[in-house]
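**Backbone shape codes:**
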Amino acid sequence: MNCSMQDYLQIVTSHLHPNLVSAEALSHIQPLAQILPASSLAGFECRLGENQSGVDFQVRLPCLDQSLPEEFLATPAWQFLQDFYQDWASPNSSLRQEISNVGLEFDVNEQLSQIPIPCIFLQFRKETVLDTERLMQMVRLLNPQISPRVESNLRLCVDSLPTGATISHLGAMLSRSVDAIRVNIQRISPQELPDYLAQLGWSDQANTFSTLTSTLSKFVDFILLSFDVGDRVFPRIGLECFLNQQPYDNPDESQWQQFLDYLVEAELCTPDKKNSLLSWPGFSQQSSAPELWPANLSLGDRLLGSKAVSLFSRWISHIKVIYQPGYPLQAKAYLGFAHGWFDRDFLQQFSDELATAL
């Protein structure tokens, strides 16, 4: 029996506070989740400000060996994904050697259309370094109709990279009415960010971007730069802030608490949403929700029970702070969840250590 994303959703949503993802937003996600094959990794993008309730749903590209609904494959986006998967899944594929994951993102601020169109994100392996020509090949893979102006701007993005910085993700925002490619840059220091963006033609007349990046870097372990490239570099800049540990990894480590307290003080996150974020990370196993556990995972638990245990893990992936000159700052949280099989002895050791720490 095959699982759907809906089977996985029902395990984790009891831990998801409605002030992060409302019941209405979940009601928009569930019809899509019933159609999508189960994916090993998924998550929610939640707005953290006061009176901000928009949500996006994200999944790692699932196994598309299973048949998608016929009406899906009649659309260019889903036909591309089906064809891409067949190539990428091949063990000898050059794409497999460069692309570690493919993410799909669905805007669910309102009822999804009958055939939801995702934004598509390619995540490159850490060792992948794209030169300008290879970047353009990847871009044309996402959008064969890329305009000369967009291509010229994308080439400038690569040619202007500081030493050591690389592109970590490329995205095609297919569900949005904008002709642009999303670019994420990794291994670029906060000090290099303003000069790099200036070389791309982006300007910040208020001259507050440098102060923001310097402040954020005091709270987080590293920052990815995210922006959209169209006929220009669009003014909306994302600073994706990552911390190496989860809140439960070391209860004596207050890094998450300090970062979220800063966001609350800056009025980018409400106190209630801060508390809901901190309560999200953790683990679920069959004994905690036997009536919700998918049937095929229950079978696996019985077959591997003496060696491995089936778990759903939940974590805070990162916080994105959005800067756009002339507009208030915004913050979004990215909440991840995944299913996996874990060595039973290791899990017991981890549980004992966590209990001792708490």
Observations:
- The longest helix spans residues 344-357.
- The chain has one domain: 5-283+312-343.
